[in-house]
Every structure is written in structure tokens, then in C-alpha cells.
Amino acid sequence: MSKIHNIREHFKKKKLLFLSVKILSFFFLADLLNCSGNAHPAPVRTDSPQPDTIHSCMKTPARFAPADISPVASGRDSTVAGMVLIPGGEFDMGGDNDQAAPDEYPKHKVRISPFYLDVTEVTNAQFRKFVEATGYVTTAEKKPDWDELKKTLPPGTPKPPDSLLVAASLVFRQSNRPVDLNDYSQWWSWVKGADWKHPEGPGSSIEGKDNYPVVQVSWYDAQAYCKWAGKRLPTEAEWEFAARGGLVNNIYPWGNEHINEGTPKANSWEGKFPYLNTRKDGFLKLAPVRSFRPNGYGLYDMAGNVWEWCSDLYNSNYYKQLEGKLIVNPQGPEESYDSQEPYTLKRSLRGGSFLCNDGYCSGYRAARRMKSSPDTGLEHTGFRCVKNKHYD
Ligand SMILES: [Ca+2]
């Protein structure tokens, strides 16, 4: 998914553009919730990600221009409060059942060093402390930068209407009837004024929701927070190792009992997506962190609630490059490539959200991979942070 890519494609087609926020949301979400796609063109080339490097690898200009977090000082917090030590070890990374998407194969051997991981998703209260300490402005709060945007458009492309070049983010709207699941505009809307303090747009707030996961944060925002906290985002491999909770080849963080069987185990979408939610797990949308039992490592919400940003570039062919090898602490591919949107740089996400169900993305599976452009914020996307075991 990429805002800039979608705008570019619109222009290429020389159609009437930006007629409504619905049109934008249709394109923005085209891959976030899909499970397969068609392969073609070359990968988006980029430098290998470096710790504390926020936007150096961007070959594709971000919709809002790369975030400048240089004013955000690197944290030197020597504590690991709110974190748990993940012991490290070897595991088979990748798909565990017939729900697995092509990008989850092949399973391959990975060795992970011990590390600390936040027990919960970063909460509104935690993110507020960061913003108050730094004055940081999130991506969704910024007006798109036309000077950056036009660099990726054909020469002579006219500037789109100002009505659409506004600070905005993507908000979920439950439908009242069955809809075409290929038409994402049926449940996502581009809402002016939606941001982390107003997750559902103007009129919504996070008052009284200090212990809910922060959402509407871009990958840049997540990176900035982690830097300030003296932490970093997890790699996909670290995330999956931690999600498995010490179990072997398990489908879910709790084991193999189906998500809809027995006691509710995660905040997902139960019923018929996107129009009927039975609320069997107690939550229509976001849930406070720690609302469900933790996994074997004491981690909460490693399935459902919000998608979580990882540090890796996303490449749908990455696992194929690793087949038959033992990879130690993989840092992700050197190039981004999404077969569904091959010209757009993507970062990886994990864990699924309150919108996931088996009729859709089954994002709560430990091996499930997802991707998005790093400038994208959504109502169901947040993050948690990592600290190296030897962090001093
Ligand atoms: Ca739910």
C-alpha cells in the first residue's frame, strides 16, 4: 500500500482524480488486506536499514516527505521496565498451515540472539510522553508535500486539488451489509483530521484510553518513538520468534486451538467481515492492552488488536532467498519488493488486528506477514519496541 503510488497510478490513467476520499482509500488499502498477488517488475532498491536510521533508505519519496526525526534525541534508558527477555534460539520461520500465503514459504531455519521486547503494544499514554518530551509531529498530522509528491509523477502532472492534499489518515467504517471484499473503499475512508489523538477522525479522542495501543502511526513515527525510548523496532524474525512463545511450529501464539474455539484468546473480527461483528471477544474495535492472556513469553496481543510495524523492508520473495540456510539474526531483505505493488517501497508488519478473521487475512497467525508503505497510518496499526540484551 502506498499513498504516493496510488496517486501516481491515478495520474497515469488520466482519469478524473481525487473525486472523493473513498477513491483514495480504495487504493491505499489494496494490499494491506490482501493475501496474494501477481509477480512482476524489479524490486525497489534501497540501502540496508541501519539502527537509528530513519529515512536514509527512501528511494521512493514519501507522500508526506521523509520524516525528519533528527531533533529526537536517542534515548539512553538503562532500564527494561515493561519489557521481557526473549531467550533466543533456533526456530523454523514461516507458514504453519494451509492458510499461509505464498510469502510465508518456504519455512527456513533462523537463529535469534536474546533480546528484550515490550510486553505490550506501545500505548497512548506512552506515546503522549514521547510527544510531550520532543514536540514530535506524526506523519498523519502533516499536510502532504507536493514538492516531494510530484517527483514520482510524470512530468507536467497537474497538482491535485488542495482538498485532498490535507493532513489525514485512514479510518475503518463498518458496513451495514455484505460488500465486495475486493472493494476496500467499502470499509476504509481517508479522513481529514484523523491522527493518533483522533483515531477515528475529528470528534473522536483518546481520552480515557491511556492503556489502549496508539494507532494512526507511520513507520517513521514508530522509529522516532523507539529512538527516543532508547529502543528499536523488532525485526520480522525477532517478532515471529517472540510470537511463538517457545512453542514449535504453532499456528497461533497460544498454540493450535482455532482462534474462534474456546475462550477468546485475541481481539479479532468475529462474525462476518466487515458488516457483522458478534463481539464474542468483547471488542468491536481496539481493546486495552493486556485484555487477553499472554503467550508463553508473557507477551500480550501478539495476535490481533493492532498490526505492529517491524524494522524490515518487505520483500515477498525474501524467504525464497533463505531456503536451506541457517540465518542468524536476519535483518530483512536489502530490497523492498511487493508483487502486488512492485514500484513502492514497503515495510513489514506483524500480528494482525481487530479487523482480522479467517475469511480475510488471518493476521493473528504467528507466521502471517503484512506490508505497507512507511508513510501510512491506519486505525488498526501500532507497534512495540525491542532492546538488545546487551544494550549498554
Ligand atoms: Ca474483536
Taking all Cα atoms into account, the compactness measure Rg is 19 Å
Oligomer: single chain
Tell me the distance between the termini: 37 Å
Number of strands: 16
Q: What amount of the residues lies in strands?
A: 5-15%
Q: Helical stretch count?
A: 7
Query: In this structure, how is the largest beta sheet organized?
Result: 4 strands, mixed
- Mean pLDDT across the residues is 83
**Cofactors, ions and other ligands in the entry:** calcium ion
Class by SSE composition: alpha+beta
Outline: globular
Give the neighbour order of strands across the main sheet: 14-13-10-15
Overall description:
The protein is an alpha+beta fold and 392 residues long. The protein is built from 7 helices and 16 strands. The protein has helices at 3-12, 21-28, 124-134, 146-149, 219-228, 236-243, 318-322, and strands spanning 44-45, 83-86, 89-93, 108-112, 115-118, 168-172, 188-192, 271-272, 276-277, 307-313, 326-328, 335-336, 347-350, 370-372, 381-382, 386-388. A hairpin with a 3-residue loop joins β8 and β9 (276-277). The longest helix has 11 residues, at 124-134. The protein is globular, with a radius of gyration of 19 Å. Residues 1-65 have low confidence and may be disordered. Residues 267-269, 281, 283, 354 line the site of calcium ion.
TL;DR?
This protein is of the alpha+beta class and 392 residues long.
